[in-house]
Amino acid sequence: MPRRTPIVVFLVLVLGMLPLLSCGDDKGIAGKVQTIVLITVDTLRRDYVSAYAPASVDIPQPETMAIDALAASGLRFEDARTPVPLTLPAHTTMMTGLPPAATGVRLNTYGRLAPRKTRGFPLLAESLRDAGWHTAAFVSADALNARYGLDQGFAHYDGDMPSDPRRSAVQLAERPGNQTVASALQHVRGVDSSKKLFLWVHLFEPHAPYAADGTYGGDVDEGSRVVGRLLKGLQKAGRRESAAILLTSDHGEALGEVRERSHGFLLADGVLRVPFLLTAPGLAPGVRQDPAEVADVAPTLAALAGVTWSTLAGPGCGLDLLKANAPTDRPRIAESLYGHHLHRWAQLVAASSGKGTLVDAGRDRLHWIPRAGYQRWIPRTKLVKDSPDIRRLAKHLADYRQFEQPDRMQGGQVAAGYGGGGVVEGFLTPAENARLADPHINMPNHYRLDDIKQAIMARPLPRALRAALAALEALNKPNLEAGSPSLHFWIGEATKRLAAAEPERAAKLLPQAEKAYLRAFELGRKDTQTLVQACGVTALGNEQASLDRLEKLVRQVPQPGCQYWILKIRLLRDLGDLEGAEAAWKAADALCRGGKYAKIWSTTCR
After folding, report:
1. Which of 104, 178, 193, 307 is 20 to 30 A off residue 480, Cα-Cα?
2. What topology is assigned to 440-604 in CATH?
3. CATH architecture classification, 20-163+174-326
4. 71-97, pLDDT tens digit by residue?
5. Which residues contact 341 (CB under 8 A, 6 or more apart)?
6. pTM of the predicted model, to two decimals?
């Protein structure tokens, strides 16, 4: 389906013809800043930071003393939002000052951010490095692995996660914040004290699974304690007094809001509103009520570094928050393509005002989510009447759709825990979107699928696998999950495992598993894992047909991974094509040698 961007908007985006912001009025503060520290605490709800949550609220009070102390020493922005409730795209927005529709990074499924000359816009680290700053980043989860491209501009990028045999195949690789902070502080101590330093530290507490005491609040408290250790370490290293420190989050956690347990799918306050704290030498403490966004990170920190930052005009673009207050009617846009990518549900895009959030799920299917203070449960109501505020928000949504740059979007392998990879689809037309299931209604089906998936991964007895298959088939009905790539993938997984548990039925079950995997691939789960299962589950005795299918389907997979090469080599060897197997081994050795499948590679493919 064609998607056209108006010529004027296209020129603004690609050529950067509208430079709006520079260090300007911030030169006095910028001259005192020798260290810039960006702290991103993943999945941190605004109202779980006690500096934001009033004591009168009848909820478990957080113990975020280190974060609260930072809030007291600088500016606390009361109304800051993220444009997307997922780690990689939200951090990309922070580092570019551009919304996901403009960067092209819209899910945790991505290839690699293009080099600067190709992509046409800078990363914050690139601009600071060019200005003579030493740049270093330390991240705590595989969703920010250097392979996605945010390492560009950093002289040192520490994103390797330790192996953990207890981690499930679908659990995101991560490391405790204490380890990340220890590595960061060790690096800081090795940087010449006369050198200007930009340090980004990403903490994965309090992202699920909650490790501190099994609760979200416990993980929030632990994350704050880790922040405190970082700040104390910077003080001991002689970097604190000259430091501008900005703490924010990529998104929050729904915790049951509008029927969502975690984040990624829906667009309510629990996932969109985030803390945003800024302290710097010479910056007076205070509270700001003007609307902020995580896109403001790059232009604001660039200004504090004394670096001119040219940004673009458009919905969701960042502002230098120290140059001037953001306009009170500033449109804040958010999007979620995750439910569409995972289950082929409708795409969501939202615009927020001081009164609430308008969520567009396709044509006239609009949801109004009122601003509800500190309630843990925000009701969802259908929009029943027109108003000037609704019309204004609807116009902002239309403008944002036109801001999309589909040429910048890439598919890729997905970080574990976030479903299948493959090509990321851009905005559908309102009419196309309206024909798809509404995520607000279908969230319970996702969690039913999630519970079944967990049961399948627990390696149950055949009886339990048969029960899981029956439960999956019950979800596979019109208007529920019939078009879900994820559902069909797990039908394949359960069927394949049942075949292994009941070998006498394998001849019947394995073709059924193959059919389910192929359906998942056809529906859009075009990643290496699905490809290999679809082409390998019935390969024994059908090697040539499996190889032919593998080579045909791999053309649709962005950046095929090591599993593809392992299967290809095994099929070639079984067919007696040793020369072809050797050529494939040489082509993929660098890719597979140090990756997740390195052990399999070294023992079966040499």
Report:
1. 104
2. 1.25.40
3. 3-Layer(aba) Sandwich (3.40)
4. 999 999 999 999 999 999 999 999 999
5. 107, 109, 419, 420, 422, 424, 425, 524
6. 0.91
